[in-house]
């Protein structure tokens, strides 16, 4: 038997590494198991988020957006940039450097906080045992009073479009293109599909997004989703709703995709195809038979509100449990569980988790949509404010989009905030704080916002809930 720990975490993604660091900070002897092999053939920390998800995709989104700005928007500002070109290989190399720096940074944080990193594939073999198999196939059993499963998730593959070389790829493969494909197909108009489609659309690809559902971004407030769809279409994304993919054929370095649009069978040919139809929990092989940890029919580990599994002392967090598959949700669950193990009372507000799509403009939301509230029978009042009326947005050449606040009609309590606009991902924190503290729309309306800022749109939206917006014509009379 190898060393015994107070806590062993399986997985060093944004849930696992945060849980490990927090547990160590609480004075617990902690180890974190990770099997992810990086490009240099060594185990790296950070999971999907840092290696092939949140961070690398944002590096490409930022680079491609600056390219579009330089090519199309600088002239309007009086900047003569000339014939701007994009070096795709250099863009990818920069992305890889950022990933390397951040994954190495986690190793440094482990060392600074006293977390032991264990390389290999972890499996829970008992209520207090974790077996780790290294790259050579050698298995070592570790004992721990508490186990946190943070194994994450993997992209979903669909039978009509099996991954093929580098022609049909998943989201990971889409981060590795070394040249811009002329014709790019994307299956799935969700967060990942829209972000990756935007990157390559900006760099010159003819992008077609095939979405099986008839509605666009159904999890977003309808007004915000409608405006987002209009803006992305204006940028050149051809989004086909109600397009159910039925098959594909790879031939002569290109792929022909067959799909049904409800009326007839269609087909399109692409140079590259990205499959972005969602993710599934990575739990197969993580828990040995007979341990007693329960999973549902989709592979999610069943947990209570504080991430306890059916086995005492075994917890699970992040993408492998219920709730949104978001890095920050996983991290907060990791902190909560570490604090509980350390003997503290901790809980998490799942009604106040922000979501962001990093297109341009960004789309961000937290809490209920207007349609959610109506479905639950809650009478609401809303306030919206367009960035077209914002002085800072005009100065930034970013007048597209709006901010919207949804409040309870009776109590005025903020139920949701939805934004499409530049820096929406930063501004949505105001909505998260409002929900966390039970703020009213009036609380936001009475808050002094700095001028000129993009956030003033949130202030004006709060004022607009009662028809008191200053910088636009009001439909409601002052009381």
Automatic annotation (TrEMBL):
InterPro entries noted in UniProt: Class-I_Pyr_Nuc-Dis_Oxidored, FAD/NAD-bd_sf, FAD/NAD-binding_dom, FAD/NAD-linked_Rdtase_dimer_sf, Lipoamide_DH, Pyr_nuc-diS_OxRdtase, Pyr_nucl-diS_OxRdtase_dimer, Pyr_OxRdtase_I_AS
Domain Pyridine nucleotide-disulphide oxidoreductase dimerisation: 353-462
Cystine pairs: 49-54
Transmembrane segment boundaries: none
Chain residues that bind NAD(+): 188-195, 211, 278
Keyword field: Cytoplasm, Disulfide bond, FAD, Flavoprotein, NAD, Nucleotide-binding, Oxidoreductase, Redox-active center
EC numbers, comma separated: 1.8.1.4
UniProt-annotated binding residues for FAD: 58, 122, 319, 325-328
Annotated active site: 451 (proton acceptor)
PANTHER family: DIHYDROLIPOYL DEHYDROGENASE, DISULFIDE OXIDOREDUCTASE
Name of the protein described by the UniProt record: Dihydrolipoyl dehydrogenase
Organism: Halomonas shengliensis
